[in-house]
Amino acid sequence: MQLTGNLLIGARDVGASEGTMKALNPATNQPIEPAFALGGPTEVDRAATLADEAFDAYSHTSLAVRAAFLEHIADNLDRVRETLAARAALETGLPQAQLEDEALKATTQFRQFADVVRKGRFLQLAIDPEQPERQPRPRMDHRLQKIAIGPVAIFGASNFPIAYSVAGGDTASALAAGATVILKAHNAHPGASEIQARAIREAVQACGLPEGVFSMVRGSGNAIGEALVDHPLIKAVTFTGSEQGGMALYRRAQLRTDPIPVFAEMTSVNPTFILPQALAERGAQIGDGFVERMLVNVGQACLKPAILVAIEGTGFEALRHAMSKRVSEAPARTMLTPGIHAAYLSGLCAIENAGARLVAVGSTSTAEVDGRSALFEVDGQRFLAEPLLSQEVFGPSALLVKVRDEAELLRVARSFKGQLSATLHLEQDDLPLARRLLPPLERRTGRIVVNAFAHPQEVCFATVHGGPFPATSDSRFTSVGMTSIERFLRPVAYQGFPDALLPEPLRDGNPLGLPRLVDGH
Ligand code: NAP
After folding, report:
1. 515 C-alpha vs ligand 1 centroid, how far in Å?
2. What is the reported pLDDT for 455?
3. Cβ distance 143 to 153 under 8 Å?
4. Which end of the chain is more exposed for a tag (fewer CB within 10 A), N or C?
C-alpha cells in the first residue's frame, strides 16, 4: 500500500496545515519516508462536525448493518496484515511476528464485537409494562435501552501500534456501541496508523455509511489533543499513555462548560506476591517466569509485572538468583521512541536514588535507544518509606521487595495505589494468607491472577483491564474486553410510547428476538 501521509477527515484525504513530520526508525534513529501531514484545530473541527452529522444515522443503524460493518473492517485488516505489521515493525522496533499476532487479535476483536452487536445484550433492554390498576398510583409503561453517548475522541497509544491504536479495542468498542470516532494517531507510528485508518474508512464507504463515522487526525504537540477534548461536539474521550498526559486531558474535560467523561488508562506496576509455600517449592521457576513476562515488549506494556514481593526465607535466594540470571542474560532491545528511552533511564536513576540496590543488569548495546534490562532489590521497610519506589518505570526493569513477615507483606499490599492487576503465587498451605490479602488487593486492582502471569491479554466477557486511580481515571469500566463497550453507552427511558414509535428492540412481541428484562424477569 502506498502511504500518502494525509489526514483522513471523513471521505477526504487532507494535506498538512501545520507542517509535516516523518516517522523515526528507533533501531537506526533514521527518519522513514514519507512525510506525514500535521493538522490542528481546523481539522479537528471539520472531523467533529462530520462525526456529529453522521451520529444520528450511524447510531440508528440496525444491529445487522453495524455488525456487518465491523466484520468488513476485520476483513480489510486481514488483507493488509503483513504490510501493516512490517510498517509497524519499522516504526516501533518491535518484532514483526509479534505485530502480525497483534494485527490478528485486532481483527478477531472486530469480529467479536460484531457478535456482541448482533446478540444485542449490550442494549440492556428493560420493559416495565404499564399497571393502570396499581394502587395507590397507576404505573406508566417504561422501556429502557442503552444508546451511544455521541462522537468519541480516541487517543492512539504508542506501545501497541495496532491493539491500542487506530484499529484497537477503543475504536472497535466505540463503533460497536454506535458512536462515531475521531482517532488521534500517535506520532510514534504514523504509517501503521494510516494503513489501519484506510482499512476502516474503506469499510465505511463499502457499507454505505455516512463519511463522518470515522476520521483520523494527527498533530504535533498538545494543541491537537486539547482541541479534541475541548470540542463541544465530542462527548467522550479515551486515552492510553502517561499519567501526566491522561490527567491533563481529564482535568481539561472537566473544565468544559459541559464536562465529558475521559476514560484514561495510565499507569500500573502490577504487583506480584509470592506466598511462602510457593516460594519454597517454586521460587526459581516463578522468578524466571516473572522476568520473562517483564521483558515482553521491552517492558513497555501496561501489564508488565514490575514489582515482586516475597517474604525472606526458604526459596528467596533461588528466586533472586533466577531473576538475576534471566535479567543479566537479556539482550538490550530497541525501545519505542527516544523520549520513552530517556524516560526509562531517568526512571532507573530515580529507583536507585530512592534507595533500591541494583542486583543485575542485562547486556549493553551501542544503539542509542536500546533498553538494557535491570533488576533492583529493596527491603520492605525502605519500600514502605519511599513512595517513589512504587512508581511505574516504563521499560525492562523490575524491583524485588524482600519483606520480613506476613504482617509486612500485608502492609506492602496496602501501600499500593490503584493497579490494573495483581498476581499471587500460592500453594495449598498459602490459602489462609491469600484470603487475608484478597480484600486489600480487590480494593486496589481490576484483576487478580493466581499462579500465572497476566499474559496474553484475553478479550472476553470477563476481562477487566481497568482499576482504581491512577491505573485509570474511572474504575467502573474496563478498556479491554466485551464490556468495554459500556464506556460509550448511556440509558434512555421511553415512557408511555405507542408501539409504532418505540425503537425496534423495545417493541411488543420482541421482533428482533433480543434478550430483555420484562417486569424484572
Ligand atoms: P503520552 O506522552 O501520555 O502521550 C499519549 C498521547 O497523548 C499522545 O498522542 C500525546 O500527544 C497526547 N498527549 C499527552 N499529553 C497531552 C496533553 N497534555 N495535551 C494534549 N495531548 C497530550 O504517552 P506516550 O507518548 O505513549 O509515552 C510517554 C510515557 O507514557 C512513557 O514513557 C510511559 O511512561 C507512559 N506510557 C504508559 C503506558 C501504559 O500502558 N502504562 C502506555 C504508553 C505510555 P503527543 O505525542 O503529540 O505529545
Report:
1. 40
2. 64
3. no
4. C
The yes-or-no answer on residue 302 being catalytic is yes
Q: Which sign does the torsion angle of CA 395, 401, 406, 412 carry?
A: negative
DSSP state of 461: T
39 touches 248 (CB < 8 A): no
Given the residues 43, 91, 302, 408, select the one marked as catalytic.
Answer: 302
For the entire predicted model, the pTM comes to 0.97
**Alpha helices (H) in 60-168, listed in sequence order:** 63-79, 81-92, 96-119
Closest residue CA from atom 4 of ligand 1: 241
The domains located in the chain, with CATH, are: 44-131+139-266+472-492 (3.40.605.10), 272-450 (3.40.309.10)
Find where cell 471523513 sits: 10
Q: Is the CB of 169 under 6 A from ligand 1?
A: no
Which is the closest atom of ligand 1 to the Cα of 344? 32
Give yes or no for residue 155 CB within 6 A of ligand 1.
yes
Helix (H) or strand (E) holding 338: helix 338-353
Number of Cα atoms under 13 Å in the Cβ half of residue 316: 18
Measured over the CA atoms of residue 389, residue 474, residue 422 and residue 155, the dihedral's sign is negative
Ligand 1 pocket member 223 (CB < 6 A): no
Distance CA 316, CA 193 (A): 45
Mutation probe of ligand 1 site: the residue of 158, 216, 231 with most atoms within 8 A of C-beta: 158
Distance 241 CA to ligand 1 centre (A): 4
pLDDT value of position 368: 82
Reduce the DSSP state of residue 369 to 3 states and report it: coil
Q: How far apart are CA 250 and CA 248, in angstroms?
A: 6
To the query of whether residue 265 is one of the catalytic residues in this protein, the response is: yes
- Ligand 1 lined by 218 (C-beta under 6 Å): no
- 280-307 pLDDT, tens digit per residue, is 999 999 999 999 999 999 999 999 999 9
**Statement: residue 145 has pLDDT above 70:** yes
